[in-house]
Amino acid sequence: MRSQPADFYLLSPQSLPQLAAGDGLIGILPVRVPDYLDRPQIVTRTGENTLDLNEFHRWAEPLRVNITAILVQNLSHLLQTDGIINTSQNFGLPLRFQVGVDVQRFEGELGGEVILSGRWSVFSDDGKQTVVGRGFSFHEQTQSETHEDYVAALSRTIAELSRVIAEELERVL
Fold it and tell me: Which residue, 27, 54, 73, 92, could crosslink 13 as a Cys pair with Cβ 3.0–4.6 Å?
């Protein structure tokens, strides 16, 4: 007997209104995600204290890598610059600021609401001083009970996080 083939998903950048461009490179630090999300299976909530790790609906790359890449793309578009880089791909280029994101929740219910919550910070060029930092919590409704709509809703929460970070970067640039 043959098992069901797995489907693989990636988050997607969102179409967002552009803000003013700034000067200097901004490094996006690798996003931190909780251990329960740091796995190939897409995690959904089935109850207040229960999760489903679906063997047939998986992330196409590590979630922390995908979230970091989407933040770079969204912020580059929002701030109208090619100066947003992933710090894991920085080859010694001087940075104006660094942005860190610590995700605490990034899940929800199929056919229900998804949540992205945690804390983001903008650091000085050397990463030693916090310029600004804030907690965040974004909620989006899924459009159906499919994993595709679930991932699309999660992508929209990252778009909201990107917008808030871009507005703060625009203020400090």
Answer: 73
